[in-house]
Specification:
- About 55% of the residues lie in helices and about 10% in strands.
- It has eight helices and five strands; from the N terminus they run ββαβααααβαβαα.
- The chain starts with a strand and ends with a helix.
- The structure holds zinc ion.
- The site of zinc ion (ZN) has 7 residues, from loops.
Length: about 170
């Protein structure tokens, strides 16, 4: 048995089963092969089975070769560009603390150089300055959190500054 893909004059495609291809040619010449859809006897062989298989293979190759790989490439293409963008926040996270610390230490040094250390009398001195009982000047000193809070509540501008120990000794 041979299965042939046939096409009529109206471009209808149908299968024909014959004992052999010669059998098909013989039946066709005698007008015994006609289109099941329109009855047209102008039937020609459309595609041989091997060519059909070839086109199927080619179709699969195209499906495997072109369709998935561009999808993968387009999906992976943003990936290489995204990681370079990601290290930026990582760099910021790793670099900024050092820069912040440097800026903080610079500010602390500036403050220490330009303030008078009044030690534990800080709340008292700050209050005196605020109420005009003492000369206005920049002071620094020690205050408990409660004292600091009280000063702030009185409207006295104080800034809690956790001084590193290294700054306390040399400048006192
Ligand atoms: Zn037909």
């Amino acid at each position: 048995m041979k299965v042939l893909d046939l096409q009529c004059g109206q471009h209808h495609v149908f299968e024909g089963w014959f004992g052999s291809e010669d059998d098909f040619q013989s039946q066709r010449t005698r007008g015994l092969v006609s289109c099941p859809m329109c009855g047209d006897a102008q039937v020609t062989k459309k595609l041989s089975a091997p060519r059909l298989n070839l086109s199927t293979v080619r179709g699969e190759r195209e499906a495997h070769g072109t369709a998935p790989s561009p999808a993968v490439e387009s999906a992976s293409a943003p990936m290489p560009t995204t990681p370079p963008a990601l290290p930026t926040p990582q760099d910021v996270a790793s670099i900024e603390p050092a820069q912040l610390q440097a800026a903080f230490l610079t500010m602390v040094r500036h403050m220490v150089r330009n303030t008078q250390d009044v030690g534990h009398k800080f709340p008292e001195e700050a209050r005196k300055m605020h109420y005009g009982e003492a000369e206005q000047r920049n002071i620094r000193g020690h205050a408990t959190p409660e004292e600091t809070e009280a000063l702030i509540e009185e409207g006295i501008a104080v800034m809690p500054l956790p001084l590193p120990d290294v700054f306390k000794e040399p400048w006192q």
